[in-house]
Amino acid sequence: MAAYLPGARNQRDELRPGLDARDLLDGRGAPLADAWCTGTSVRDFVRVMDERPFEEEAVRSVFGAPPEGAHLVFTTDDAEQAATAN
To answer: The organism sits in which domain of life (predicted)?
Structure first.
């Protein structure tokens, strides 16, 4: 995704990266180069206007079905467990 990260300037003239989900769901953007990931974090993102997640059908149409037993969404509980592990 780093190859395709559009942005806009904020009031302090700093670049604020952004991502348009329509590009993602329409298959537009840079190709996945030098990436060997086995999943996606897109399920962790929500729409700003109503905080709803991407529809699972849309995620699967772009990224395919997740592997059996995959951890699909990183939650606050997961973060707390990771912070206290070891």
So the answer is: Bacteria
Comparing CA positions, the residue from 79, 82, 11, 3 lying closest to residue 44 is: 79
Farthest-apart Cα atoms in the chain, separation: 46
> So where are the chain's domains?
1-31, 37-86
Strand ranges for the chain from DSSP E: 7-9, 15-17
Q: Going residue by residue through the chain (86 aa), what tens digit of pLDDT does each one get? A: 445 555 566 677 776 666 667 777 777 766 666 666 667 888 888 888 898 888 899 888 888 898 888 888 888 888 888 888 86
Note the pTM of the prediction, 2 decimals. Answer: 0.54
